[in-house]
Amino acid sequence: MPTELEEWNVTEASFPAKGTPAERLAFLVRCAILAPSEHNSQPWVFHITGETLELIADRKRALPVVDPEHRELVISCGAALYHLELAARRFGYRADVSILPDLKRHPDLLARLSLHLSSPATEEELALFEAIPRRHTNRLAFEPKPVPADLLASLGDAARAHGAWLVPIDHDHRVRAAELVMEADRLQGSDMRFRRELAAWIHPNHTSSHDGVPGYGFGFSTVASYLGPFVVRNFDWGDEQARHDDELAEAAPALVVLGTEKDEPRAWLNAGKALAHVLLAATTRGVSASFLNQPIELAELRPRLSALLERAGLPQLMFRLGYGPSVQPTPRRGLEEVIRR
Ligand SMILES: Cc1cc2nc3c(=O)[nH]c(=O)nc-3n(C[C@H](O)[C@H](O)[C@H](O)COP(=O)(O)O)c2cc1C
Questions:
Q1: 38 lines ligand 1 (CB under 6 A)
Q2: How remote is the C-alpha of 307 from its chain's centroid?
Q3: Using an 8 Å Cβ cutoff, are 254 and 155 in contact?
Q4: What is the Cα–Cα distance from 181 to 19, expressed in whole angstroms?
Q5: Does residue 283 have its Cβ closer than 6 Å to ligand 1?
Q6: What is the three-class DSSP state of 180?
Q7: What's phi and psi for 198, nearest 5 deg?
Q8: 54 has which bridge partners?
Q9: Do the strands 213-214 and 202-203 form a parallel or antiparallel pair, or are they unpaired?
Q10: Cα–Cα distance between 209 and 307 in angstroms, integer?
């Protein structure tokens, strides 16, 4: 395995059951960093002191054009927090978490937690934990095979467990949702600032970078992956992306929106936890996901998606679910880059 992908090699055997609390917390961080994040920006830092771990937003890794309010940044950190808590449960611990413990003075401190011995993991927790290194965003076309209704219902339950909601977009509303994605693609593709920001996070397939998305994440060949950042930066690809996403959205076995009642950091953290739980639960059943968040990222289109859903609350993320070909993992920053002691 190339060194930038080594971080995916997490096994339960490496849990330091007899180690110090700090060593156990560091192991949990290995699981947390495998969480999804916008553009694989990994906008997190973990501060370990003795028996306490703090999850801190790394706003140097923010994406000012696509995510000016840092909403997706906090959602990404929420996903990492769910991985942390799940990994604790896998080894019979419960994480005592306080969310945004000092919002006024230290808004970057998203969560502070410590571990307490608790009951053994349930079958479900074991399965979710084992799915961590198998979950990957899959941007390729999915097979025309429906996602079972019982799975969609249990993904809805998973989102609700974190105070979020997950609603499938039914066939009557699919075309209008796809049109919003297309409109968003055209707006983003014609925006030079957006293209510059995105291009900075797209790398050739053989990258030594520990963050961002290698071209293979978009299905690019090795040669195309060297051209990718140049093309993304310098050409208005909105129309072409719109055509591509229209096909993906309309053919998706399931297209779902994850949302919350409110739109503030606590709700975003919950949305991130819900997202990670939903994606891992889908992975346990062989179902992959990929995002079509564009209409939510543009302030002028988000209310139109909301209206389409006919549901109170705010859409936070939209993604396809289905059965796809296997895909490679994306790189991660190592522990030495994300843990501060
Ligand atoms: C909040 C959030 C927003 C995301 N938005 C998009 C998106 O708009 N388009 C996309 O292709 N992927 C999106 N992703 C997926 C990330 O690009 C992906 O998680 C990252 O590259 C790491 O790869 P992995 O999920 O395979 O581990 C998003 C992920 C998160 C957590």
A1: yes
A2: 24
A3: no
A4: 49
A5: no
A6: helix
A7: -65, -45
A8: 47, 112
A9: parallel
A10: 40
Q: Is the CB of 291 under 6 A from ligand 1?
A: yes
Distance from the alpha carbon of residue 223 to the mean position of ligand 1, in angstroms: 23
Relative to the CA of 39, which ligand 1 atom is closest? Answer: 17
Residue 269 maps to which CATH number? 3.40.109.10
Residue 212 C-alpha to ligand 1 middle, in angstroms?
10
- For residue 137, what are the β-bridge partners? 289
Which of residues 113, 135, 157 is at a domain's end? 135
- How long is the chain? 341
CA of 137 to the centre of ligand 1 (A): 7
- Which residue's CA lies nearest to atom 28 of ligand 1? 38
Ligand 1 contact via 274 beta carbon (within 6 Å): no
CB atoms closer than 10 angstroms to residue 151: 18
| Domain assignment of residue 329, yes or no | no
Q: State whether the beta carbon of 184 lies less than 6 angstroms from ligand 1.
A: no
Q: Is the CB of 137 under 6 A from ligand 1?
A: yes
Does any ligand 1 atom lie closer than 6 A to the CB of residue 75?
yes
For 164-222, the pLDDT digits (tens) are 999 999 988 999 999 999 999 999 999 999 999 999 999 999 989 999 999 999 999 99
Domain count, the chain: 2
Distance CA 255, CA 247 (A): 12
Q: What is the pTM of this model?
A: 0.98
* Under-50 pLDDT residues of the chain: none
**Sequence-separated (6 or more) residues with CB below 8 Å from residue 217:** 40, 137, 139, 327, 328, 330
Q: What is the model's pLDDT at position 214?
A: 96
Alpha-carbon distance of 326 to 152, in angstroms, equals: 21
Query: How far apart are the CA of 50 and the centre of ligand 1, in A?
Result: 32
Q: Is residue 18 part of a domain?
A: yes
Nearest atom in ligand 1 to the alpha carbon of residue 66 is 8
The residue range of the domain holding 234 is: 149-322
